[in-house]
Here is the input.
Amino acid sequence: MSKHHISATINGDPAEFLCDTQQTLLDVLRDELNLTGSKEGCGSGDCGACSVMVNDRLVCSCLVLGVEAQGATINTIEGVAEGDQLHTIQKHFLSEAALQCGICTPGFIVATKALLEKNPNPTETEARYWLAGNLCRCTGYDKIIKAVMNAAAEMRGA
Here is the structure.
């Protein structure tokens, strides 16, 4: 089996890697690039724990092949914070206790960031709808939605 040379931009930086044709983007991120923030919760695109942005589109990285990343711009949970400074969304997830085991948290944060970039003033219903592809088995959703709404308000300056 031959490996393919892939060039992409990941979290703003150029990246190159080799991968097999059947390796998922999630496997490449975790195993080849040591970006272990995205988690595999299901491997079938049902839980959202592995959510990343590919060319400004929110995707489950377990459903994308690594070879499909050629030339792509990819943003992962590792690219959300600015150095040691947590993003407003991350701060609100912490302050609202919107996480417990942490498996789903990276996917929720990436999805929330995608939502707030597209719609900086979502209603609670819109936020719930947008995050419907992300499942949490620990916290329930009320604390997560509160964190999302509070982060949105702070980011808008409200």
In short: The domain at 4-79 is CATH 3.10.20.30 (Ubiquitin-like (UB roll)).
